[in-house]
Amino acid sequence: MPLPLPQRLRAIGYRLLQAVPVIFGIIVITFLLTRALPGDPAVYFAGPAADERSIAEIRAQLGLDRPLPVQFWHYLGDLARGDLGTSISTGQPVIHELMTRLPASLELTLAALLFAVLVAVPLGILAATRPDTWVDHLCRFIVTAGVSLPTFFTGLLLVYIFYFLLGWAPPPMGRLDILYLSPERVTGFYLIDAVIAGEYAVWRSAAAHLVLPALTLGLFTLAPIARMTRAAMLQILASDFIRTARAAGLTRRKILIAYAFRNALLPVITTLGMVFSFALGANVLVEKVFAWPGIGSYAVEALVVSDYAAVQGFVLAMALLFVMLNLVIDLTYTLIDPRVRLGD
Amino acid sequence: MTATAPLLAIEDLTVEFATRRGTVRAIEQVSLSITRGETLGVVGESGSGKSVSAYSVLQILDRAGRIAQGSIQFSGMRLDQASERTLLDIRGREISMIFQNPRAALNPIKPVGRQIEDVLLQHTLAARSNVRNEAIKALKAVRIADPEQRYHAYPFELSGGMCQRVVIAIALACRPQLLIADEPTTGLDVTTQKAVMELVVELTHERRMASILITHDLGLAAAYCDRIVVMEQGKIVESAQVSTLFQAPQHPYTQRLLRATPRLDSRIRDLLPEPRPAPVFPPHGPPLLEVRDLVREFPARGQTSAVRAVDSISFTVHQGESLGLVGESGCGKSTTSAMLMRLLDTSSGQILFKGEDIAAVPAARFARHPLRGKLQMVFQDPTDSLNPRWTAERSIADPLLRLSNLSRRQRRLRVQELAERVGLPLNLLGRFPHQLSGGQKSRVGIARAIALDPDLVVLDEPTAALDVSVQAVVLNLLADLRADLGMSYLFITHDLNVVRLICDRVMVMQAGVILEHGSTEQVLSRPEQAYTRTLLAAIPHPPPVQV
């Protein structure tokens, strides 16, 4: 039976507390790794015409001339004040960039996952109920094709067909038509903010811009979800309690959905969590193809120019995101399976 | 006369399975019938086709299975030709089934009450408004205490016996005419087995139902059935009233099966088809293992005090002696064996093995202790206790590799010697576990245990997963090994009939305490404790026979 609410909240609090050392470890490692990267930000920042003296000046200005422990101590102090530093390439505060770009990436990734789940889960169930028939083989073909084609290729193909040939999709240039202003920022998700602001036309434009990149990324993530659904369903359908349900005369539909699928959900949700994390990383290419102002392209650009503050901010944001994601998955577990308890 | 018309009549039924190696006949030309109010036992060993027969009645065979021939009539209806829609109405409403391993037979993430509701709603025997009351009534009917509370319980929160009651409640909720019970008590304790069987008999009688009991246990079938059908390799070899079958078994297979089933007066050689001289054991030597005030505590959830799984037990095993440890699940016998094998640390107490207190050695370090090789174990499940990716030879050689300095050639010879010793044909040494039968796998497990000439072997239910005829052979092998090699046994089991055959002395354990302790003869014939008497009374005994 589920835990009473206060106990559950305490268990959640305990889990969050457990994440603190992990996050501290990540702060240390990213700090050291960015310093170990080749390339000198002071040289980059000073420009090609700079001489020794001006580079040294800039280095002192950026605080890079001090010993590492001191730099780290200052970095920690800034973090505590919520200051992630300023990006040397864009001149904007990192926190500000993350706040605008992260929702863009999340909106894209979540839309892609929604599409993938809606397609892959029914495919997986279908394949599991008819193993080794043409249905099964077809499902395997579709998901294998999805994962084998690189996202930039699928993306370009979709753009070619739906924008260039058919003209159904808007040009692959960001999140909105240039005619529109972005809706007033509440969540950073345009689809949600547009609804809150009551701007129907903006919502339409945002949705239309989202479709192709989400499809591109979604196709890429079909395979693991469909394969896991199929495997989990096959295993559950062979178990004893399904036989009991059949012997009791329950309908096929009831057995498949209420008995088998609910039990198969656990491994599927675990897979979803993993897919979410790799999709968030893999959408750099998609962002590039569709000029999507996401966090992936920001991080890659920052990395190329040794933009310490931006890279560190990006890694930290991802770490926090994954801690939250894992907590959400564990919470979902406890809702589905009475045998799983938080904090055990 | 219509009164004697059979409720279920199976005629010439042949079921085939499509496998990778072509079509396999699981049952062939099976004919049986059962009338209202009758209880029919279907007895056979694994692979005899008894479960397949039951599944074909309800048409819940695997996808690969198919009725190739024959007919199944149920109250005048041809089930083998019925549509899926008709079958949905028959299943659970006219014919129900209960299964072995009741906990796995229930949906793990659905409260048990809701699972009963699903069946009631499916067969429209209750409406949404009153279904909950009906489900609680069904729980009450199978004597589940506090049914309103248990309605919300999940299978993992209930004991095995309680789960089986829930499975019975699901099966009987719609008042079917025929109940098929497929090994309903395998894996349950004897006292639970008795309670479950009595419940089934009482409910089926009360409702004038017919029932089919599928079991490997002749004693169980004799105790609860009117008539018995014996199956071997997919065919019915004999069918008779219980008394006739036990007095004058006709078929050689039935005779072999009856012989192999341990009974009150049987001795170990009686189980074998051919007579052999009784094993001669060397006289018992000095104490080999002395256990003193052994305690193991586990922290309990939500309680301040720890639970004592093993509560201050003391006993002695002499050289060459076989000591039985008997008890029901949860009594602490596995915890005891894990501590003796030094797989688990003790909370307090001493384990003197050959005079040395091995309880003082931490479990994590015992693997390197010089006495480790002298203490070996044979496990309950012969399949799970072998590495699936190792050949029989590799498995037997494992202790030699780890704890001896034999050369490769010497090891090979030793493995061959061991295989001969346990009666494992040498040409099977290169096979993997899945290519061996249950009996062969258990021989591999025994050969592995005796590879280093141990002084004490702990045998944890070594025959529980075996068919009776295989059990007979393995028990005899164990007796021979002890007679020839002079080892001592600690034999852990829930089966008192097996204890009678193989142990000199026996201890009865309950709730972490040894209740009774004495010679096998004395404890099993003149038990002092009420609990021992309950245990003894719960064992179904096949009627005595002259074979």
Description:
The complex is a heterodimer of chains A (344) and B (547). Chain A is mostly helical and 344 residues long. Chain A is 75% helix and 0% strand. Chain A folds into 2 domains: 1-89 and 305-344, no CATH class; 105-294, MetI-like fold. Chain A contains 13 helices and no strands. The two termini of chain A are 14 Å apart. The mean pLDDT of chain A is 86. Chain B folds into 2 domains: 2-261, 3-Layer(aba) Sandwich (Rossmann fold); 287-299 and 306-538, Rossmann fold. Helices cover 33% and strands 25% of the residues of chain B. Chain B is built from 18 helices and 20 strands. In chain B, the strands form 4 sheets. A 6-stranded mixed β-sheet of chain B has the order 6-7-8-3-9-10, with helices on both faces. In chain B, strands 16-17-18-13-19-20 form a 6-stranded mixed β-sheet, sandwiched between helices. A 4-stranded antiparallel β-sheet of chain B has the order 2-1-4-5. In chain B, strand 4 (65-74) and strand 5 form a beta hairpin. In chain B, helix 6 runs parallel beside helix 7 (190-206). Chain B starts with 7 loop residues before the first strand and ends in a 9-residue tail after the last helix. Chains A and B meet through helix 10 and helix 11 of A and helix 2, helix 3 and helix 6 of B.
